[in-house]
TrEMBL record:
PANTHER family: SOLUTE CARRIER FAMILY 13 MEMBER (PTHR10283), SOLUTE CARRIER FAMILY 13 MEMBER 1 (PTHR10283:SF65). It comes from Dromaius novaehollandiae. Its main location: membrane. This is Solute carrier family 13 member 1. It is a multi-pass membrane protein.
């Protein structure tokens, strides 16, 4: 009996030892990959490949199992979306959309800024945030330069009239920004400026404010717009794939449900960010914004002229643009109507294959059409015969490859491999048990803390790397404290995109900063306010209108039940 008892104890010890070694090795792998992602000592995609050989060597997962994690439904959805983005960029459809939206809003400076923000946000809903910023920024730069040039001429003319004659010493150079040399700045600090020079300095500050507001509105609206759709930014896609993989019985996260929960948040952040930037750099003059029946100022006339000239250069809408627009609308409608929730969607036409078709199915079907539909139509000669032309599709494979973000695809695959390893090694369960004491805190405080931590980390690390690190931690946290995982995962996912403080925080910031009109302190001041606005809007949403969409205050049947003695208070 003693011998049998010792054998049982020895066996239990070996099992415990093996389990401990397994999840400690998985934790080590996760730590190493996280350090490489945060420091970017290696390219993100290269660091994402570390689990592919570390897990087999540590005996956590077989090589075939790890490899299968690097290509998921997410990648098929990404391929379809990139096909659409490649066609939009190739045929300059994005410029037509951006300019038309700005023309509809008007040329009042404040409304013009809002127009650029709305158009850039709309583009970033369907394209990458980086592409949206890179597309719209040249238009903004041209408009801003023309505004400054026109107002400088008007100011110089008014000064000459007030003095009774033209004073060459007071005329502004046509390129007003060249006045901002360091020598000139030092001189104005050292000397007492006469009234004329004081007015000149005031106008310089105003012109600088115009450039700063227009640049920052593009950087921030490109990020804000990406929140709206599940395909708008890589962090949303990573969340959707992680959630659907971890909770396969829940089919509540799709294009339509995400749009409904995020569009109010996007609108709130966009409008408040617009007000914040106007107030911070230009002041907020309600009278000039809502004036009616008055003549346009020189600034407004210059803006209208530039925008109209840019739009005329595009010419009439072309056949490839029309086809791209039709396919874009078709893809959007199919996404919204697949499983809207309040009415049966088109997926209900296949009841025997429930759950088989996803958003990636729609994206792939439409994406393949871009490689099939010709970019030119048949034209007839005077004799009524069709002219012969070489067949060219809307996009080619090379054009698709140039737009495809392979780094993000591999990075996401590495995140999925890490998540699978955490499950197999029981590291997720161990983390969940350690986080159980947090259940004694109020729920709103837990959500706020997770939002603030994620927002802080994403300022110094890439957004995809941040969400990939935190999702495997926050999911077991929600299960351990017995709350709906969506209640914590949705705010954390949205806050991962709030990288507004630094030029290196995300590529859109870097693109705008490269134009030379901003300082780091400008971005820090503006970005801090927008970070606060963003977190506040997310907290408002998760505590109000998002609750009934997913029944967030009820622990769902699709989530695992973990025994816990801690209760979470609202």
């Amino acid at each position: 009996f003693k011998s049998r008892h010792s054998e049982i104890k020895s066996g239990r010890f070996l099992i415990f030892s093996h389990t401990f070694m397994t999840f400690s090795e998985c934790a080590y792998t996760l730590f190493v990959v996280a350090i490489f992602w945060l420091t970017e000592a290696l390219p993100l995609a290269v660091s994402a490949l570390l689990p592919a050989f570390m897990f087999p060597l540590f005996g956590i997962m077989a090589s075939k199992e790890v490899a299968s994690a690097y290509f998921k439904d997410f990648h098929l959805l990404l391929i379809g979306v990139i096909c659409l983005a490649a066609s939009i960029e190739k045929w300059n459809f994005h410029r037509r959309v951006a300019l038309r939206m700005v023309m509809l809003v008007g040329v009042n400076p404040a409304w013009l800024t809002l127009g650029f923000m709305v158009s850039c946000s709309f583009l970033s809903m369907w394209l990458s945030n980086t592409s949206a910023a890179a597309m719209v920024m040249p238009i903004v730069e041209a408009v801003a330069q023309q505004i400054v040039r026109a107002e400088a001429e008007v100011d110089a003319l008014e000064m000459s009239y007030s003095n009774g004659s033209t004073n060459p010493a007071l005329e502004l150079d046509e390129n007003i920004m060249e006045c901002e040399t360091s020598d000139w700045k030092e001189k104005t600090k050292e000397q007492n400026l006469p009234p004329a020079e004081t007015g000149r300095k005031s106008r310089e500050d105003k012109y600088n404010g115009i450039f700063k507001v227009m640049c920052l509105c593009i950087a921030y609206s490109a990020t804000i717009g990406g929140l709206t759709t599940i395909t708008g930014t890589s962090t949303n896609l990573i969340f959707a794939e992680h959630f659907n993989t971890r909770y396969p019985d829940c089919q509540c996260i799709n294009f339509g449900s995400w749009f409904i929960l995020s569009i109010p948040i996007t609108v709130i952040i966009l409008l408040l960010s617009w007000v914040w930037l106007q107030w911070l750099f230009l002041g907020f003059d309600f009278k000039s914004m809502f004036k009616c029946g008055k003549e346009k100022t020189a600034r407004e006339q210059a803006s209208a002229q530039v925008i109209q000239e840019e739009y005329k250069k595009l010419g009439p809408i072309s056949y490839p643009e029309i086809v791209t627009l039709v396919l874009f609308i078709l893809m959007t409608l199919l996404w919204f109507t697949r499983d809207p929730g309040f009415i049966p969607g088109w997926s209900s036409l296949f009841p025997e294959y429930k759950g088989f078709a996803t958003d990636s199915t729609t994206a792939l079907v439409i994406g393949l059409l871009f490689f099939i539909i010709p970019a030119k139509t048949l034209s007839k000669t005077s004799n009524g015969e069709n002219t012969v032309f070489g067949y060219t599709p809307l996009i080619t494979w090379k054009e698709f490859q140039s737009c495809m973000p392979w780094e993000i695809a591999i990075l996401v695959g590495g995140g999925f491999a890490l998540a699978d390893g955490c499950e197999v090694s029981n590291l997720s369960a161990w983390v969940g048990n350690k986080l159980t004491p947090l259940g004694s805190l109020p729920l709103w405080l837990i959500i706020l803390i997770s939002c603030l931590i994620v927002t802080s980390v994403t300022e110094v690390a890439s957004n995809p790397a941040t969400i990939t690190i935190f999702l495997p931690i926050l999911s077991p946290l929600a299960e351990a404290i017995h709350v709906n995982p969506l209640l914590i995962l949705i705010p954390a996912t949205l806050c991962t995109s709030f990288a507004f403080l630094l030029p290196v925080a995300n590529p859109a910031n870097a693109i705008v900063f490269s134009y030379g009109h901003l300082t780091i302190m400008d971005m820090v001041k503006a970005g801090l306010g927008i970070n606060i606005i963003g977190v506040a809007a997310v907290m408002l949403g998760i505590m109000t209108w998002i609750v009934p969409i997913f029944d967030l205050y009820t622990y769902p049947s699709w989530a695992p039940v973990i025994s816990s003695t801690n209760s979470t208070r609202l």
